[in-house]
Amino acid sequence: MSGILTLRRFAPLPSPASGRGAGVRALALLFPLTGCAATQATGAVAPTAPGFLLGLWHGFIFPVAWIVSLFASNVAIYAVPNDGGWYDFGYFLGIVVFGVGARKSHVVYRDNVITARARRIQE
Q: Is the pLDDT of residue 69 over 80?
């Protein structure tokens, strides 16, 4: 069969409308689970709760706070209660950008250059 092109016939693809019912059923089954999501009343957080800047600071000092928290029960590495997402974002930036995650490995590039000239060997 060299040089001959053969065409195979495959089963037709299902239409998008036929899979729509399965997606709707899946969403209908997952929708009640949204009631289990943790929520917080807007008045539950005190106005003086730690926010973005304290989250940034706590993320930055995380390594030291973690070691101290192993030996002192009154030291925690994360402030609770806090104002939520902004504190978490500051904490993440403090660890990743300014804290432990900001350390770069030391890379040394070394080029070996041979400056000796070759000599002719006399036999």
A: yes
